[in-house]
Specification:
Structural class: mainly beta
Number of strands: 8
Number of helices: 2
Oligomer: single chain
Helix content: 10-25%
């Protein structure tokens, strides 16, 4: 789950470069999603290009995860910048699978590149489990 939260937080930091988090993201998930995000904080808020930013995210997992993917789609305007699926249960995951239900939190510190291009960014981050059911979904929209 730490890998999921790491991917989630890195995804957000890429997209929130000069906006406040509360203005840019919302859950596109369902109340029945397996992972419910309870808290996300960014420091400094708002972050700016060149800042070292700390992001904290916490939530609750309600069922065992033994596989699945983190599906990431990021666009600058209508141009797709990133479209990829990363396996949840991989060798670089700090938690071994199966991932047990419970409360999870993770903190990541990253630096926002000063070279990030200006424009309207949109993104969607969807986690799916071993039977391709949605674990969580986040939509992000910002303008740099």
């Amino acid at each position: 789950m730490k890998q999921l939260l790491s991917i989630f937080t890195l995804f957000i930091i890429i997209l929130v470069a000069e906006a406040t988090l509360n203005d840019v993201w919302n859950s596109c998930g369902k109340p029945s999603d397996t992972f419910q995000i309870k808290n996300v904080t960014v420091n400094p808020d708002p972050p700016h290009k060149g800042d070292t930013v700390t992001i904290y995210a916490a939530g609750q997992l309600t069922k065992v995860i033994s596989g699945g993917n983190a599906n990431i789609l990021i666009k600058l305007g209508f141009i797709t910048i990133i479209k990829e699926a990363k396996p949840i249960c991989s060798s670089d995951n700090p938690l071994s699978c199966p991932i047990q239900p419970g409360d999870y939190s993770h903190q990541v510190t990253v630096t926002i590149p000063t070279s990030a291009p200006k424009g309207k960014y949109s993104g969607q981050f969807v986690l799916t489990d071993q039977i391709d059911e949605e674990i969580a979904c986040i939509d992000v929209n910002i303008e740099l």
